[in-house]
Design goal:
five-stranded mixed beta sheet; single chain; 1 helix
C-alpha cells in the first residue's frame, strides 16, 4: 500500500522534499512508518492521519495521508 507523508518543521529532515509517497505492507501501523523513515522515538512528533490526531498504534490504509511535525510549546 502507498501512504502519502507530509513533513513540517523539525520533521522535514526525515523527508527533505516535505511530501513523499512511501510503500508499506498492508496493515502497517504509524510506528512502523516512522521506523521505516528513520525517525527516532526521541523525536516524539505530532502525528495526524487524514486530518485527525493519531498515535503510533494506529493502523494505516492505502491512500492515507500522514502529517508529521515537531511539537511546540508556548505560553
Amino acid at each position: 500500500m502507498k501512504i502519502r507523508v507530509r513533513c513540517f518543521t523539525g520533521m522535514r529532515q526525515y523527508a527533505p522534499e516535505g511530501d513523499v509517497a512511501i510503500a508499506l505492507a498492508e496493515g502497517a501501523r504509524v510506528g512502523q512508518l516512522l521506523d521505516h523513515m528513520g525517525v527516532p522515538a526521541s523525536a516524539q512528533p505530532f502525528i495526524a492521519v487524514n486530518g485527525r490526531k493519531a498515535d503510533l498504534e494506529e493502523t494505516l490504509r492505502d491512500g492515507d495521508e500522514v502529517v508529521l511535525f515537531t511539537q511546540m510549546e508556548g505560553g
